[in-house]
């Protein structure tokens, strides 16, 4: 399934927040991404409609299996790319920002090659 970069960012953010806190709510995403409440609300509605997140009666957001797969793939890319760039001497903050852009456009083939290279170092 091909989804938009913004959706991938939301899913990745939910994954990161779930690793930090017991429950994730829209306000947590607002605070993490510095987006407006209406923007996050619209995004959560779209992600629910696509079957990528679930929201319970208390407003707790969880990733569905499909959403988790996408989030973990993007997070894996982000982590590897950030680490590689930082090891090359890029400032860690810049490395993280650049990785956030690259993670969405890099091909699977190129990512696997970088992953293999990183393991050989």
Describe it for me?
With 121 residues, the protein is mainly alpha-helical. The protein folds into two domains: 5-67, Winged helix-like DNA-binding domain superfamily/Winged helix DNA-binding domain (Arc Repressor Mutant, subunit A), CATH 1.10.10.10; 70-120, Diphtheria Toxin Repressor, domain 2, CATH 1.10.60.10. 69% of the residues lie in helices and 5% in strands. It has a two-stranded antiparallel sheet. The longest helix has 23 residues, at 65-87.
CATH class of the largest domain: Mainly Alpha
CATH topology of the largest domain: Arc Repressor Mutant, subunit A
Shape: elongated
Oligomeric assembly = single chain
What is the secondary structure topology, with strand pairs?
Layout lengths: L4 H16 L5 H8 L3 H13 L3 E3 L5 E3 L1 H23 L4 H11 L5 H13 L1
Antiparallel strand pairs: 1-2
Features:
single chain; 121 residues; mainly alpha; Arc Repressor Mutant, subunit A; Diphtheria Toxin Repressor, domain 2; 2 domains; two-stranded antiparallel ribbon; 6 helices; 5% strand
Produce a short descriptive summary.
This protein is mainly alpha-helical. Helix content is 69%, strand content 5%. It is built from six helices and two strands.
């Amino acid at each position: 399934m091909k989804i938009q970069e913004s959706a991938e960012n939301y899913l990745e953010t939910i994954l990161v927040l779930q690793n930090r806190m017991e429950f994730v709510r829209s306000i947590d995403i607002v605070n993490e991404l510095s987006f407006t409440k209406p923007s996050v609300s619209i995004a959560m509605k779209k992600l629910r409609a696509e079957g990528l997140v679930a929201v319970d009666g208390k407003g707790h957001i969880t990733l569905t299996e499909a959403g988790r797969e996408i989030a973990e793939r993007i997070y894996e890319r982000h982590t590897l790319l950030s680490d590689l760039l930082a090891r090359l001497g890029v400032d860690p903050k810049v490395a993280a920002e650049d990785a956030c852009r690259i993670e969405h456009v890099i091909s699977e083939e190129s990512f696997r090659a970088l992953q293999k290279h990183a393991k050989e170092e």
